[in-house]
Amino acid sequence: MSAATKKRYITNKVGSEFYELVDEDIIAQVRQSRGNNLHEVLDQNGDSYVVSMPTKFRKSVWLRRDQFVVVRPITEGDKVKGEIEYILDQDNVLYIRELGKWPTCFEENALKMTREAKRGQTSDKMIDDDMLPPSESEEEDESEGEETYDEDDVDDEEEEEFDTYNPNRMQAPSK
Q1: Beta 48-52 vs 80-88: how paired, if at all?
Q2: Residue 18: closest CA among 87, 76, 110
Q3: Cβ count within 10 A of residue 142
Q4: Alpha-carbon distance 89 to 133, whole Å?
Q5: Please, where are the H alpha helices in 17-132?
Q6: How many Å apart are CA 49 and CA 37, to the nearest integer?
Q7: Distances (CA, A) of 88 to 19, 26, 97, 142
Q8: What are the pLDDT digits (tens) for 50-65?
Q9: Which domains does the chain carry?
Q10: Single pTM value for the model
């Protein structure tokens, strides 16, 4: 597999799949980049430590501060305590939250990602009003304001002729 194909594959995988958490996975928030593919994270237990980014993500996916990642702990090493298993985007965060596996310490950040928070609304409706088709009462109200046209009015408009003068054109032959 060429480098470009690998990059495209990883980018599509991160952007399109929902991640299923495994028992030893830890959800963490990226605090800062330490350089050399090392990142400092704050995990769901409140511990702060350094994790490494695996080679499959390097040069194809970039991390931002306060972004969420799934970390798999590693036993060897003194400074590096884990490896990034998956980079969570907004859809994955909301999906894990719906499953009930989202840590309570990051709940406030997950609430900011919901549709209601972005719109500044708080509602318990399953479907937003703007996603529903218009009701019949709204259609009746709109139709009352419209004018109705008779066929006789249309025929009268067609019979009218206008004499216009255009100096750039030759005179039309008379009938």
Answers
A1: parallel
A2: 87
A3: 10
A4: 30
A5: 90-99, 107-112, 115-119
A6: 14
A7: 8, 12, 12, 45
A8: 999 988 888 778 889 9
A9: 3-88 (2.40.50.140)
A10: 0.61
